[in-house]
Amino acid sequence: METNIPKERLWSWEDLERTIYAHYQDPNLDLVRQAYDFAKTAHGEQRRYTGAPYLVHPIATAVRLAEMELPLNVIAAGLLHDVPEDTSATLEDVARVFGEDIANMVQGVTKLGKVKYRGIERYAENLRKMFLAMAEDVRVVFIKFADRLHNAETLYARPVQKRARIAEEVLQIYAPIASRLGMGDMKGRLEDAAFEYAEPGAYKEAKELLDKTVMLREGDLAKTIQEAKRLLESAGIHAIDVMGRKKFLYSFWRKLSRYHQDVNKIYDLVAIRIIVHDIADCYAVLGVLHAHWPPLKGRIKDYIAQPKPNGYQSLHTTVFDETCGIVEFQIRTKEMHDHAEYGIAAHWHYKANGDQKPRKTMPWIDELAHIQKEMAAGQDFLQRLEEVKLDMFQDRIFVLTPEGDVIDLPEGSTPIDFAYAIHTEIGNACVATKVNDQTVPLNTELKSGDMCTIITNKSRRHPNPEWLEFVKTSQARNKIRSATKSKVKQWIDNMMKK
Ligand code: MN
After folding, report:
1. 75 and 64 in contact (C-beta within 8 Å)?
2. What's the burial of 295, exposed, middle or buried (CB within 10 Å: 0-12/13-18/19+)?
3. How many A from CA of 99 to the centre of ligand 1?
4. CATH of domain 13-195
């Protein structure tokens, strides 16, 4: 039944402009405007699957990146992210107008575009692709998340049979990675967008329950916020912000099932967040609140002294208020808040004159190894994925086929190693290769993230023995040797016949 289909929000340039002005100091919008104009011309009259003008999607992506306060060149790349794949403008055109750095980000997103959840067999590969992109340039992953979130938010316009698969992909791949990267806001939004289509019945039930409970408490909560503000003021503590926050729906639902569906046991359904200037103020606020409202035993959590594994920091306390009942407070600095909402993206915050260059963030490989472990521990079916051994990452590279499959190879591997890793016949018949659409010599060293195309010639049946001088994998070496041996044997046989 297709009742009350939501209307898609038609994001405009003005939305993006407004978001940037709200989050950035003295931004220079020239680059972003140029990217907007370029995308607008390139996408032309194209429409999304929702029926809306295509441009709505890159703008929505860019707005999300602006909310994350990422550098303006990342926002520009967000606006351009679907240009090479979906329009007649090429990556070279983007590079010519916007430079290599932006073009590289766009290309990274295009490669990641092929990440799809296709059940267990493809799962490990898809995660690897995300790892790989992250190791290369984590900004690409931010753009991909923003892109995917908008698509997830407009799932209702997808054919029914596609919805569940995409929703599953969001829940199984994107949300856990966002979570491990500390991107709480992104994780929550992704999950909530996918929830409705992954588990329609539960979604409906959860939404009704959350809305009802929140509605009942809203008035009281506003009073408690006022009271908290008054207490801080009279204690001489300056709060940057005091606000209510509602729990994300999917996370509420999961917690509810842990608490035997008893909504009264979920104290952080709505919480009050207090943002202050420094750590000393955090503890001072805790004292002021406890002097006025008795804290519940065992509910004071000091995640400042002991951060959560993903780096989350805050003080949490649950107090009893006569009008409002049980309320949770979350107290943190602005930095902690940004970190909680945006995770590693917070490290990339826009700085007016700061360096906007990508930094190699290899420690993220460690982070990702953790994701892998947690997922494996949490879900039985993942334990079968023994081939995913992240310790291999140290000296391995990951090269993509034009179809988006990931081939992992030892460092220093060449297109010949790549060809043999795909299939012996492809190796034997290899005559030329393209790396990232450029024709290169066969002994070129491949890098992680390269997209390699092997050009074969059916009439070529034997490898060139000279390849032995540069191949890195034993697989390629053995195949070349054995093919060469048989070729020499054939030649001798032919000579003997004469
Ligand atoms: Mn897109």
Report:
1. no
2. middle
3. 21
4. 1.10.3210.10
208 annotated active-site: no
Ligand 1 center–CA 98 separation, angstroms: 19
CA angle 171/173/177 to nearest 5° reads 105
Q: Which CATH number fits domain 202-352: 3.40.50.11270, 3.40.47.10, 3.40.30.10, 3.30.460.10?
A: 3.30.460.10
pLDDT tens, per residue, the chain with 498 residues: 444 456 788 999 999 999 999 999 889 999 999 999 999 999 999 998 888 999 999 999 999 999 999 999 999 999 999 999 889 999 999 999 999 999 999 998 887 765 554 554 455 556 666 666 665 677 888 899 999 999 999 988 888 878 888 888 888 778 877 876 778 899 999 999 999 999 999 999 999 999 988 888 888 888 999 999 999 999 999 999 999 988 999 999 999 888 888 888 888 888 999 999 999 999 999 999 999 998 988 889 999 988 876 678 899 999 988 877 888 999 999 989 988 888 777 777 666 544 444 343 434 445 555 555 555 454 433 333 333 333 233 366 778 887 767 777 878 899 999 999 888 889 999 999 999 888 999 999 998 778 899 999 888 778 888 999 999 887 788 888 888 776 666 665 665 555
Which architecture does CATH list for 394-497?
Answer: Roll (3.10)
Ligand 1 centroid to residue 149 C-alpha, Å: 10
The domain spans of the chain are 13-195, 202-352, 394-497
* 450 CA distance to ligand 1 middle (Å): 21
Catalytic residue selected from 67, 85, 302, 341: 85
Same fold, 202-352 and 394-497: no
Find the 264 Cα to ligand 1 centroid distance in Å: 40
Of the residues 15, 17, 86, 335, only one is catalytic, namely 86
Run of H or E including 142: helix 138-153
Which pTM was predicted? Answer: 0.68
Please confirm, yes or no, whether 85 is among the known catalytic residues.
yes
Residue 459 Cα, ligand 1 centroid: separation in angstroms? 41
3-state SS class at 278: coil
CA gap 172, 182 in Å, rounded: 16
Q: What is the rounded CA–CA span in Å between residue 237 and residue 285?
A: 8
Amino acid (1-letter code) at residue 395: D
Tell how far CA 197 is from the center of its chain.
20
Tokens standing for residue 477: 């070496």
